C-alpha cells in the first residue's frame, strides 16, 4: 500500500506498471544530469560536421579538431608562459580592486558626505569605455605590467564597490541601534556587524569581478604587451593562425571558469552561512 | 503620578524631527509619566504616535528636543548599562550560533566573552526553553524561537530595564499568545521594569500593570490605565469581565479623534 502510494505520487503516468515507471524515471534523471554535457557535445559535433561538409578554410572557421591539433602542435612551455602572464595581470588587478573597493565601500556606506562627493565620480569612471581609456593609460604609465594591472583594476573594482555598499547598507537598523546602545565604537560596528552582513553581497560581486578581471587583462594585452593570452590572440590572428587563436580563447574561458569556481569554493569554506540554505 | 522614586520619568518631553523635505514634524508633545521599579507598562496607540521614539529616548539613542527623561533620577544623555532592548524583528546574526548570538553584546562591546557570561547565556537559553538549540544557526529556528533568542540576548547583562518594541508583532496569532505567557513567566522569575510597545489591546491587557494610551500627530499620552487584573494571568484572564470592559474602553480611546488642543 505504502510503496504503491509513493510510486503513484512520484509519477502520474501508468500506475499499473510501477517497475517500468521506475526505470523510466531513472533514465530521465540521468538525461537531466547529462543534458548540459550532451548539448555541448552536440554543438561541437555539428560544428565539426559543418566545417568538413562545406570544407571551410581554417582562417574562416577552424573545426574543433583543427583547434585541438593546433593547440598540441605548440610547445606547452609557450602556453604556460602566456597563461601565467594573463593570470598574474588578472589576479594583480583583482587583488588591487578588492584592497581598494572594500574600504572605499565602508567609507561610502557610513559617510553621507563621502557618498555625495565620491559616488558620482565613481559612476563617471565606470561609464568611461575601458577599451578607449586603455591606450591612454599605457601612454601615461609606460610599458611593463603596471598599466595592465591598472586597466584590470579599473574594470573590476566598480561592481565590488557597489555591491559591498549595498551589503553594508542592508545591515538591519536594529543591530546598529543595539551596537550604539552598548556604547560600542563605530569601528566595532563596521567590523562585527556591517561587514559580515555584507559578505554575501561581496562574494556575488567577487564572482562577477573575477571574470571581468580576465577581460581586463586581455584588453590590456591587446593594447600593449609582449606576452599573455590576449597578446597571443592578437599575434596569432595577425598571421591568420586562427585555430591557434581559438585554442587561446578556450584556455581563457577555462581559466575564467576555474577562477569563478575557486571564488565559489572560498565562500563555501570560509563563509558557509552566507550561502542560501539549500546550496550549503 | 510623578513619584520621586520612579525608575523612568518623562517630564514635559517634546520631540521634533526634521523630515526630508525640510518641514518640522512633531513626534511627541508634552509627554509626562513615570514608571515604578519592576512595573510592567505597555504603550499602545495608532501608527505614528511616537511610541518607538519614546522607547528610543529612554534607550539614549535619541535626545528629546525639549523636556527631560530621567532613569533613577539621572537625566539620560547616552545609552546606559541597565537597559536591554528587544526589537520588533529578532535581528540575530546569521553567522553565529544561538549561544554566540546571546553572548554577542559582550563580545561586541569588550571583544571577548568570559566563562561566567557563557554560563549565564546557557541559563537564559534554559529560561527561554531553548537550551537544546544552543549550537543551531538562527535560520534553523522558527520566528517565535528567534524572538526568544532576542529576549535572552537582551537579558544577558541582567538589565534592570527591559525595553520591548512590538516584539511579537511579526509572529502569528498562536505563537503570539504563547510568547505573552512566556514573557510573563520570565518576568515573574526575573522581575524587571518593562516598557512594552504594542499594537494589540489584548496583549497589553494580558501583560501590563498599567497601559499608556497614546494619540497621534503629535504623539501624546491620552490616558494612563490601571489594568488591575489579578496575577498570575492565565488564559482565563482573557474571559474576565473587566478584561473586556477595558478592551472596549481602550479601543474607543485609540479610535476616537484627538482632543483639540
Automatic annotation (TrEMBL), chain A:
- Superkingdom, natural source: Bacteria
Span of domain ABC transmembrane type-1:
83-263
Q: Where in the cell is it found?
A: Cell membrane
Keywords attached to this Swiss-Prot or TrEMBL record, sorted alphabetically, are: Cell membrane, Membrane, Transmembrane, Transmembrane helix, Transport
Q: Which CDD domains does the annotation name?
A: TM_PBP2 (cd06261)
Q: Which residues cross the membrane?
A: 25-47, 91-109, 121-143, 149-170, 198-225, 245-271
Note the topology in the membrane. Answer: Multi-pass membrane protein
Write down the PROSITE patterns for this protein, in alphabetical order.
ABC_TM1
Family annotation (InterPro entries): MetI-like, MetI-like_sf
User: Biological process GO terms, please?
Assistant: transmembrane transport
Q: Name one GO cellular component term.
A: plasma membrane
> Which family does the record assign?
Belongs to the binding-protein-dependent transport system permease family.
Entry protein name: ABC transporter permease
Q: Which organism was this protein described from?
A: Alkalilimnicola ehrlichii
At the highest ranks, the source species' classification is: Bacteria, Pseudomonadati, Pseudomonadota, Gammaproteobacteria, Chromatiales
Amino acid at each position: 500500500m505504502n510503496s504503491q502510494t509513493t510510486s503513484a505520487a512520484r509519477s502520474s503516468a501508468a500506475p499499473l506498471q510501477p517497475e517500468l515507471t521506475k526505470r523510466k524515471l531513472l533514465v530521465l534523471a540521468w538525461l537531466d544530469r547529462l543534458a548540459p554535457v550532451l548539448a555541448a557535445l552536440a554543438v561541437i559535433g555539428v560544428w565539426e560536421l559543418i566545417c568538413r561538409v562545406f570544407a571551410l578554410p581554417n582562417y574562416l572557421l577552424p573545426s574543433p579538431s583543427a583547434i585541438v591539433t593546433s593547440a598540441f602542435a605548440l610547445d606547452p612551455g609557450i602556453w604556460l608562459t602566456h597563461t601565467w602572464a594573463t593570470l598574474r595581470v588578472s589576479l594583480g588587478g583583482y587583488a588591487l580592486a578588492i584592497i581598494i573597493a572594500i574600504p572605499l565601500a565602508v567609507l561610502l556606506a557610513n559617510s553621507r558626505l563621502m557618498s555625495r562627493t565620491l559616488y558620482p565620480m565613481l559612476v563617471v569612471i565606470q561609464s568611461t569605455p575601458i577599451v578607449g581609456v586603455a591606450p591612454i593609460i599605457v601612454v601615461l604609465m609606460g610599458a611593463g605590467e603596471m598599466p595592465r594591472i591598472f586597466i584590470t583594476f579599473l574594470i573590476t573594482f566598480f561592481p565590488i564597490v557597489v555591491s559591498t555598499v549595498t551589503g553594508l547598507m542592508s545591515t538591519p537598523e536594529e543591530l546598529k541601534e543595539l551596537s550604539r546602545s552598548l556604547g560600542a565604537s563605530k569601528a566595532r560596528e563596521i567590523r562585527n556587524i556591517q561587514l559580515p552582513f555584507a559578505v554575501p553581497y561581496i562574494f556575488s560581486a567577487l564572482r562577477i569581478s573575477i571574470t571581468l578581471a580576465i577581460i581586463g587583462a586581455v584588453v590590456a594585452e591587446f593594447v600593449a604587451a609582449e606576452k599573455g593570452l590576449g597578446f597571443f590572440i592578437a599575434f596569432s590572428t595577425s598571421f591568420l593562425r586562427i585555430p591557434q587563436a581559438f585554442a587561446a580563447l578556450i584556455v581563457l574561458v577555462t581559466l575564467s571558469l576555474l577562477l569563478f569556481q575557486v571564488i565559489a569554493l572560498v565562500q563555501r569554506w570560509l563563509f558557509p552561512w552566507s550561502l542560501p540554505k539549500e546550496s550549503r | 503620578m510623578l513619584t520621586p522614586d520612579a525608575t523612568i520619568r518623562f517630564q514635559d518631553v517634546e520631540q521634533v524631527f526634521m523630515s526630508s523635505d525640510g518641514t518640522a514634524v512633531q513626534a511627541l508633545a508634552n509627554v509626562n509619566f513615570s514608571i515604578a521599579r519592576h512595573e510592567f507598562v505597555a504603550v499602545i496607540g495608532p501608527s505614528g504616535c511616537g511610541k518607538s521614539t519614546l522607547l528610543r529616548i529612554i534607550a539614549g539613542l535619541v535626545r528629546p528636543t525639549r523636556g527631560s527623561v530621567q532613569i533613577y533620577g539621572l537625566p539620560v544623555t547616552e545609552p546606559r548599562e541597565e537597559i536591554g532592548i528587544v526589537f520588533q524583528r529578532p535581528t540575530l546574526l546569521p553567522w553565529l550560533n544561538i549561544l554566540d548570538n546571546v553572548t554577542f553584546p559582550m563580545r561586541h562591546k569588550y571583544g571577548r566573552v568570559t566563562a561566567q557570561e557563557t554560563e549565564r547565556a546557557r541559563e537564559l537559553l534554559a529560561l527561554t526553553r531553548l537550551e537544546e538549540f544552543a549550537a543551531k544557526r538562527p535560520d534553523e529556528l522558527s520566528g517565535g524561537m528567534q524572538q526568544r533568542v532576542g529576549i535572552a540576548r537582551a537579558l544577558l547583562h541582567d538589565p534592570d530595564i527591559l525595553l520591548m518594541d512590538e516584539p511579537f508583532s511579526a509572529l502569528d496569532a498562536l505563537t503570539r499568545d504563547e510568547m505573552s505567557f512566556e514573557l510573563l513567566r520570565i518576568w515573574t522569575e526575573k522581575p524587571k521594569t518593562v516598557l512594552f510597545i504594542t499594537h494589540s489591546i489584548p496583549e497589553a491587557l494580558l501583560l501590563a500593570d498599567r497601559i499608556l494610551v497614546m494619540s497621534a500627530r503629535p504623539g501624546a499620552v491620552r490616558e494612563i490605565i490601571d489594568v488591575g487584573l489579578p496575577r498570575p494571568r492565565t488564559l482565563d484572564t482573557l474571559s474576565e469581565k473587566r478584561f473586556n470592559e477595558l478592551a472596549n474602553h481602550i479601543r474607543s480611546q485609540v479610535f476616537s479623534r484627538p482632543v483639540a488642543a
